[in-house]
Amino acid sequence: MKKKELPRFLYGGDYNPEQWPEDTWSQDIKVFKQADINSATINVFSWALLEPREGKYDFSKLDRIVKNLSAADFDIVMATSTAAMPAWMFKKYPDVARVDYQGRRHVFGQRHNFCPNSANYQRLASDLVEKLAARYGDNPHIVAWHINNEYGGNCYCDNCAAAFRQWLKDRYQTLDNLNRAWNMNVWSHTIYDWDEITVPNELGDAWGPEGSETIVAGLSIDYLRFQSESMQKLFKMEKAIIEKHAPSIPVTTNFHSLPNKMVDYQAWAKDQDIISYDSYPAYDMPTYHPAFLYDLMRTLKHQPFMLMESTPAQVNWQPYSPLKRPGQMRATELQAVAHGADTVQFFQLKQATGGSEKFHGAVIAHSGRTDTRAFKEVARLGQDLQKVGPTIKGSNSQARVAIIFDWSNFWSFEYVDGITKDLQYVPIILDYYRQFYERNIPTDVISVDDDFSQYDLVVAPVLYMVKPGLGTKISRYVKDGGHFMTSFMSGMVDSSDNIYTGGYPGPLKDVTGVWVEESDAIVPGKSTKVAFGDHEYDAHLMCDIIHPEGATPLAKYTSEFYAGTPAVTENQYGKGMAWYVGSRLDHDGLSRVIDHAVDQCDLHGLAGEDSDLEVTKRVTKDGQELYFILNMRNEARSLPAKFKDYHDLLTGETAQPTLQAWNVEILTK
Ligand code: GLA
Ligand code: ZN
Known about the structure:
Elements: E1 10-14, H1 25-34, E2 39-42, H2 47-50, H3 60-71, E3 75-79, H4 87-92, H5 119-136, E4 142-146, H6 158-172, H7 175-181, H8 217-245, E5 251-252, E6 254-255, H9 265-269, E7 276-278, H10 288-301, E8 306-309, H11 328-338, E9 343-347, H12 373-392, E10 401-404, H13 407-415, H14 425-438, E11 443-446, E12 457-460, H15 470-479, E13 483-487, H16 509-512, E14 514-521, E15 528-532, E16 535-548, E17 552-557, E18 566-573, E19 576-581, E20 583-585, H17 587-600, E21 614-619, E22 625-630, E23 637-638, E24 647-648, E25 653-654, E26 658-659, E27 664-668
Parallel strand pairs: 1-2, 1-9, 2-3, 3-4, 4-5, 6-7, 7-8, 10-11, 10-12, 12-13, 13-19
Antiparallel strand pairs: 14-16, 15-16, 15-17, 16-20, 17-18, 18-19, 21-22, 22-27, 23-26, 24-25, 24-27
Helix pairs in contact: 5-8, 6-8, 8-13, 10-14, 14-17
This protein binds alpha-D-galactopyranose and zinc ion (ZN).
């Protein structure tokens, strides 16, 4: 059945009224209304309240919460409460609790620590969701269902081991296939019986911390795929129950982190009716990092997403939490909107007085007052969204550049033992993303399965793992006129992490017109020099020694024994072009490569000039172009000349020529 859209631009967030006396609730609503808050996410962690003993349910308080919010005309995002298990469940069914990488079973105390393959957890969660969905499924105020909370984290218990063996049988059919895929004829690892397969463990498959080092990469990568799929099955289990009772209401789970390594969001996206994302940029995070995450979230379904959580003030979990500067909260929330968010939701609406998050910021702080800086800023943003939300909602973004982000690469690249221990996937992807961000060139963050033909330029940094068919897909894209850029550590292994022999970058050799003989590790504190014409730049991490086979050098190394050999190459291939970047160039060096590519592809930044304002564009369903001009810094900047006659939706007036610190303009013609 077709799902409904969200009825309006939601402004709200997580609300836990069960933590307060009921006679305070009406005052809460009054305060929210003062800030134009129109929505609340409830019931995220209420399992112990709803089911105090197995099978004994008590929905009376939740009924009153729903009634209270409904009477106030709030749109409700209804969560299912399955992310934190009540104490009795640990006591009665110890297998519901996750076992960690060190083999230790969790005990009652935290949250997000259920085993995805525990039949007891699955049954108890299904029973609860069945009751919830039957009770509230036809409530017209519920505009979305929010399953569980921030899935992530792996389990290594016996139930998971048994399910993993079955998963492997389905994938490989025979042990011969499995031994071949994992290349087990190394270190006497050959498996002769399915029950000899041991899940990754600190004293087994690995030497280092979870997710970072492994002996048998094929096994470890498969385990991550399996765990991500196990959790995805839980999501689908809950979703199917909800859909029986509320077939037309969108269902989602909140994605999170920078991004979360353990959950393959691209694989999960097809099961989400709308993507939702929890955004908590750290105080010292450059602003292109959250922008990248929003672009990734938008591209998962090529549709607007929900900003399901964010903080109106401080978080409690950073080592240091400087206050957001005046205006900064508004700018960071609108940054998400600029990149495709159709909601602005906070964690949380009312600050807890106890527990681990009592110092996490909220719309209603401990003081309960509304004459505070933070509350006034929330109220101002509420007014803004009231004004512009209806126009923005449903508008989409268009990009001609795409950066490939791939979870199998995320996993396999960070498992690599060798050349350098500093192989981190996200920072390298961000090097490239940042280049387009700084030029205000809209960028999608795509999966390897996306259609490349809609882009003029596809950038695939460290495309280490190239699954079957991908090499051909890239070659065809370039042959037909596309532009493709890749880098060191690309085209090296297949989907089981086995090397493509015959020279790197394996299936990308043809299209890039190079082969890489060796790669030199650059040790910390050192750099190698790379020159474009007369200009020299630093290169770090590693340097590929490249033999052009058809490609032409754009830049050369000027130090080390490989001085004079190509560091960056360009290859005309069919009607298109492919670039190979052989090292981790510093920002200005990479800038040279990107300038060249942008030129070749005739790409232009939205600001029409160099500007350190952030500019994005969303286009409404009837074709109206909305330009978001964001000053993401604590000092004034002038508006690019191109926009001087534009109209600001936020003020209702002509665009101001100067954007004060953290100010935002939303401009139309
Ligand atoms: C996460 C969780 C919330 C809350 C916030 C605090 O995003 O989903 O329940 O703990 O962090 O920042
Ligand atoms: Zn388990």
